[in-house]
Amino acid sequence: MELKSNRIALSNGIFLNIVETDKFKSNLLTVNLIRPLEKDEVTLNALLPMVLERGSRSFPTKLLLERKLEELYGASLDLGSSKRGERQIVKASIEWADPKFTGDKKSDKEAVNLLKGVLFDPVIVNGSFDDNYISQEKRILISRIRSRINDKRNYAISRCIEEMCKGEKFGIYSLGYEEDVEAIDGRKLYEHYRSILMTSPIEIFFVGNPDGLELEQLLPTELHNRREILFIPREIIPENYMSKRQVEEKLSVSQGKLVLGFRSSIPYEHELYNGLLVGNELLGGGPNSHMFKTVREEKSLAYYASSRLIKHKSIILADAGIQFSNYKQVLDLILDQVSRLKSGDFSDEDLQIAKKSLENSGRSIVDSNQMISEFFLGKVISKDERNLEDMLGDLEKTDRDKVISAMDTVTLDTIYFLNGKEGETDEENLEQYS
């Protein structure tokens, strides 16, 4: 399946991207409002889609919305916010059955109108969002913010990012902050909602069969008259960074969580970025990676061991779940694996396996309309004009020298360790995971 997008300007800063395909039995329509990741609005942006999802003027309760979705052959409506680099994406999407499988052509228009109503015609009372909706969703958001500590692995990773990127927008937590939730009321959120509608870059994606759909009619009239649209700059990738910090946090945990944050000076636009991508795959990207084979399998020192590359910040995060007493040994092993990659200590077979793994991951994009939509959003944000085959072709050309050159720019920035409290001991035997 060849991925192509027809990109149409609908208004100032608003684009419709149509990916026509008959591979799926459903159609997907997604509206992305793109915001800068800022401390003073991150919490508002996290709360807004939760409130919008409560209902529209045509379907003013969650129950009525759900009934309508059932009438549309089990359509699904999803609103939320996410962090992509130093941007926050407020997203609303609807997925519904392609009428060629149901014989109900009017469902196309009804699905589009349902999303339009939820996003652009919400329940408003005297110039404010409904206070009952606000109070309920505020409690839910506070609960979500507090519950991030429940997933200790992801908690450790997010804390490493916060410590590593202090003073940078990327260090802002994507769900916002509890103290800021408390200060939000219906009027404040509504005013923010109106502001982001009129100032945000908006990217609309449709994946499926567009026959007969009037997608240009999705926008309300007022959005055709927008004036000043926010410019969101590309994230800064520092070339000279001297900071090196160690952070230890103690909680009642039965397993230590070690996270190493590395920086690279290679931005994703650079010709060596694929070398960094492959280098990370070799380090900890899968079951054939050096971290997995050495720390997990050969030494039996970790419950898990892997690494990930954060594209928009050129940051590698290597993490492992370990016994508290193995902290120093695992730390040294991970640093040694990074050094080995810098010196070219990896086989040609390992290189080919890493590239093949990345290729398979890239090709899997076409298996999901959600992933296709996200793929094209990523292309828009990064201003990447290449198609998927071009990207995979460039990846295949990545040789040993490019990996070594890219990994040579990788420098340790932050060591974060989630440790147990005094008196706690490891109760599990790592041998059972070997």
Concise structural overview:
The chain has 434 residues and is of the alpha+beta class. Helix content is 40%, strand content 21%.
Specify Rg, calculated over alpha carbons: 24 Å
Residue share in β-strands = 15-25%
As a percent range, the share of helical residues equals 25-40%
Give the second-level CATH assignment, the architecture of the largest domain. Answer: 2-Layer Sandwich
Largest sheet: 6 strands, mixed
Shape: globular
Any overview of this molecule?
It is a single chain. The longest helix has 17 residues, at 131-147. This protein has 15 helices and 11 strands. Strand 1 (6-11) and strand 2 (14-20) form a beta hairpin. The protein is of the alpha+beta class and 434 residues long. Helix content is 40%, strand content 21%. The protein has 2 domains: 6-225, Metalloenzyme, LuxS/M16 peptidase-like (Cytochrome Bc1 Complex, Chain A, domain 1), CATH 3.30.830; 245-433, Cytochrome Bc1 Complex, Chain A, domain 1 (2-Layer Sandwich), CATH 3.30.830.10. The protein starts with 5 loop residues before the first strand and ends in a 14-residue tail after the last strand. The model is unreliable at 426-434 (pLDDT under 50).
